[in-house]
Amino acid sequence: MTFKYLCCDDGSGTLVGTVLQFENVTILIDPSWVADKISYKAAVSYWSEVIPTIDLIILSEPTIESLGAYALLFYNFLSHFISRIDVYATLPISNLGRVSTIDYYVNRGIVGPFTTNEMDLDDIEKAFDFIKSLRYSQIVDLKFKFDGLTLTAFNSGSTPGGSLWCISTYEEKIIYAKRWNHTKGTLLNGANLLDNSGKPISALMRPSAIITTFDKFGVSKPFKRRNREFKDLIKQLITKKSINNTIIIPVEITSRFLELFVIIHELIYNSNKLGQSLNIPVLFISYSRGRNLTYAKSMLEWLTASLLKNWGAKDNKSPFIMGNCFHVIKIEELNKFQGPKICLVSNVDTLVNKVIDKLNNSDNLNIILTEAISKINSNPDSLLSKFYERWNVSIKNDSNFKDGNTIQFKDSIALTVWKNEYLKDKELEDFKTKIIERRETNKRKENQLRQELKKGTDSFQMNNGNKNNMNGIRSNDFNINGISNNEGRNNEEDDDGEDDDDDIFLMKNRANINNLNYEIPVDMHTTGKSKYKMFPFNPKREKPDDYGTIVDFTKFIPKEERDTEFENDEIEDSNTSSKDKNILRGTKRKHTNLGGRNKNKSGNEYYNIDEDEEDEDEYIITDIPIKRTKRGRPSKDINYNEDSNENFDNIDYLDALNNPSKRVCETKTITLNVNLIPFSLENIVDQRSAAVIWPLLKSRKIILLGPPEAQNETIINNLNKKNIDVMKTRFSDKIVIDTKIKTLDISIDMELDQLLNWQKIGNDHTIAQVVGRLVKEKPKDHANEHYHSREKLILKALDKPSVLHPTGTLSVGDVRLAELKRKLTEQDHSAEFKGEGMLVVDNEVAVRKINDGETVIDGSPSELFDTVKSMVTEMLAKI
């Protein structure tokens, strides 16, 4: 069988998507956009020739490299999405993907209060709300719609929600794995390629082809060791004796930021617990502000269980709540934080350049690079590109260079900074009018499309028997503008409403196709009880002292009396001097301490503050212990009260009508003197592991995403030595790939089925010997005749059965040693299990299973040997 494969290139010389075309369905994977090389209009023009042929879109990561063009496509080709195209991804990709898209589009001026604005924030939200969210290992059954197609996402271990896609049809099974990691990291489990015993999972075995890339590999050093060394590096830089010791870390905000946030949080928490206070603010600068943290708090079930367990043991319900030392700020607010600080900056050019420009005069400015440069942000003139270039030069010149080494970067460079000039008078009014009219037009068009879709659905249901209304309508019968090639245009004279009429025409015809009342055979699967579907919950550990559990009698006081007593105490405290209040707090336990008191190794005490115990949930995520010193004063180290931070999810400032401005590019020369510290924390498989794991899947072919010159030749040669066909592909070349059929999907005719003698094997399988003739037939009276219908292979009985030659019987099945032991014991034989799963009978005969398909009976010829052999044979079916 054959399928077609295409690496998309919009003219940037970079992979921006992958197209897989089967017999009756075309799938687009990971549409992206290189904004530094291709303009917005050029990207729309390129995709206008691709989207009309697409039936499905799947996304594998929440990064710009995998979905940079998705919101652009949804906004500009809305009629195709509403009428035909479905989009599938995991929930973290749907949530975090919109965050990375906002940062990327605002960086280019496509979104935001700029004169270059092309889209609104709401357009991005609608695009990602349209995605159909999946769980890992959830099978998307599209067999009836696309004749045998199923999609399954498996954990890739590289980013939150990152997926390895298994795309299966009746004849093919394709695995798409662009980025993956087999080892466990700080936040994520390893890729779901191997089971606990190190064997490949059966769902991914023997694919027709594996689509991947060898252009980028991680380091082989264990992640726990890298994690520990990175913490030591941060601690060393913070504790340097410098007036203004600043650390800048450019991060990818969906995956790398969350990982670094947890690492730095753990470092600060453990240091404060040991009495080694790290009083340093952690700043986060991003156009989307702190929305990625809010999404992360709601998706804890997608992270590794050990992360939640460790933080649950620390009396902290979420690793994503750092307290009052963490701040989400704008560029203009950097001056408020003098002295040492850690700045996590979204790795878009405009933000990185502005931050470095503002902090360039710091006494000791350190820039830590935690990941290799992305091909999407590969602008050679950007400041980040210069840093990565210096990193690569250091590696080439010094063979002993390793992560954590400092590179002194001192040079005069041309820095590009974007400034905003606010619109005034007529320019402001014209811009507001333009945005308002665009919004009204888009809203009216969308409502009209959906109304026409609904009318088309209703009319089809009323005339379900009239099949002539749909003749000739297929997914490939539409051109770029969405107009059927089989129908003439009735309104060509109306140029103003041509686009709207085209979309309405498309919707009206598509409604009849996608809403057929199919009679789909459904298999009922009995799943576990509801308690197994609960959210993974780790209860807070109780820490009783040597005399048992502390009982707080204030819990038994009525709430009204407790509030009155608390008010009286506040009045009494207001009449007490500050010195007396410190003495009182240090000598007695206040009644608000409902959680008891615990001491850490440094001797500090922790009090749980909970004023409304009866009305509050004990496991509310913001109910975090507040650290107090021995004398009762709140510690200056850290406060885990989340309410102390402002709402950092609000991004209304990016609304197009909020102080519109004109973006002006300024280039100035600065003398940059920084310490450049490369330290790789990427969750990507290393070269050696990839060369070992891929052959285990026993794939017929490995297809490498372009370009060919970017691929690692060493691993290609290793795979070729193992007789694996590795195919390099170039951009924009549609490749037809032929695969040999090793399995056939054959239906047995009902008449032949009644003549067969079925024998049961085990609990779930039956077997029978069959002789017949294989014919190809098309389904008769198929309900969905407008989709491609493939010929079915049907095995029918012979008209004149020939005389079968007698042959030896073949025993097939599974021998269960436990069942064999029970039968032998019933006949007063001594049967015991020895080492390595061997069953020994009367110390004379041994039965052992070499593998799942071979059972060996050892022993000298005797009556007992014949008895055991006959029992084993009785457990098998004969053919």
From TrEMBL:
Residues 257-373 form the Beta-Casp domain. Keywords: mRNA processing, Nucleus, RNA-binding. Residues 442-457 have a biased composition (Basic and acidic residues). It is found in: Nucleus. Residues 473-484 have a biased composition (Polar residues). InterPro entries: Beta_Casp (IPR022712), CPSF2 (IPR027075), Cpsf2_C (IPR025069), CPSF2_MBL (IPR035639), Metallo-B-lactamas (IPR001279), RibonucZ/Hydroxyglut_hydro (IPR036866). Residues 492-503, 564-573 have a biased composition (Acidic residues). GO terms for biological process: mRNA processing. Residues 462-472 have a biased composition (Low complexity). Residues 442-503, 564-610 are annotated as: Disordered. One of its GO terms (cellular component) is mRNA cleavage and polyadenylation specificity factor complex. Gene3D superfamilies: 3.40.50.10890, Ribonuclease Z/Hydroxyacylglutathione hydrolase-like. SMART domains: Beta-Casp. It holds the Pfam family Lactamase_B_6. GO terms for molecular function: RNA binding. Belongs to the metallo-beta-lactamase superfamily. RNA-metabolizing metallo-beta-lactamase-like family. CPSF2/YSH1 subfamily. This is Cleavage and polyadenylation specificity factor subunit 2. It comes from Arxiozyma heterogenica.
